[in-house]
Amino acid sequence: MSGVMDALSFLALNVFASVLTGNTVLLGLAISSGNILNVIVPLVALTGFIGGVVLGNRLAEPNLDFQKKIWPATVTRALFVEVIMLSIFTVGGFVMGESIRRQAVYVFIMLATVSMGIQSSAVRALGVPHISTTYITGTRTNLIISFARQHNAKTVTNKDERKSGLVLSIGVVVVYILSAMVGGVTVANLSLMAALIPVIGISLVVVVAKVRML
């Protein structure tokens, strides 16, 4: 669902919710413009994401049972906090409508980027190699490398592992692109309330994880 949030935040808030590289470029451009107000927006985005990663790491930090579980309870806890923050974002978007004051923009940026930072740490805590739902550049890089090395696998096990990783990476990239498309369409009609889509999606993940833990 990070694709929805990146599309939403870029179109409505002029930053990316999870793309640190893009926000770093925006920060450099803002600094070169000499306008201090332009610098604040990407700086808030970068700070929020970093804070979200730190918070997410604390929430999703593996416990002693981590090695015994495919989906640890700590990851569910982190995603639950993300849902809360995105819900606040959505409600705020409903209250504000399309007329967002500059001070409120900073709050929305912080909510969006902290949420994506939490998601990044939560997915990383799952321990799936070379997969990230927010760092898509890295996922694409690993996808290309896996594809290039597929024919060099020396054993059936290595081939199966690389094929599995290849399929998973392709899935992540495709879902990101599709969710960005959905985000672009819904932002035009719902503005910031388009965040309801990732709220529903991640809530379903949390519910399924809770049920499977019972």
Overall radius of gyration: 18 Å
Percent strand equals under 5%
Helix content: over 70%
Structural class: mainly alpha
Main sheet, how many strands, which sense, barrel?
none
Distance between the termini: 26 Å
Tell me the total number of β-strands: 0
The averaged pLDDT comes out at 84
Number of helical regions: 8
List keywords for this structure.
mainly alpha; 8 helices; 214 residues; globular
Write a structural description.
- The chain has one domain (2-127, 190-213).
- The longest helix is centred in the last third of the chain and has 35 residues, at 156-190.
- The model has no long low-confidence stretch (mean pLDDT 84).
- 78% of the residues lie in helices and 0% in strands.
- The chain starts with a helix and ends with a helix.
- The chain contains eight helices and no strands.
- With 214 residues, the protein is mainly α.
- The chain has helices at residues 2-13, 20-33, 36-60, 73-96, 102-125, 136-149, 156-190, 196-213.
